[in-house]
Predict the 3D structure of the following.
Amino acid sequence: MDREQRLAENEILFRDVNERIKELQAGDWAARDIDFMCECANASCTAVLTLTPVEYEELRRNSRRFAVLPGHEVDDVERVVETHSRYLVVEKNLETVRQAEESDPRR
């Protein structure tokens, strides 16, 4: 597995964790903001970012996109496609798009 694939695997893992967090919050889902794991490529990252339910659902509409804290993006394997006050949305480069899409639990 090359570096880009390994970094994508890290982001995919965090996306899966966040989907589980969403499931656990089902009763409160629409009522409040939720703390999610940063979905960056750093496997040892334990940072938390807060998203509204609308922000999270918008993010999950595109399998190629991940929410990361500012400064956690990896420019050579992804690009920033949205900048928000609390987080960034990054999109995987072409080399790992299929990997991100095929592993999406919502597909």
The chain has a mean pLDDT of 87. The helical segments are 3-24, 53-60, 97-102. Residues 64 and 101 are 6 Å apart (CA to CA).
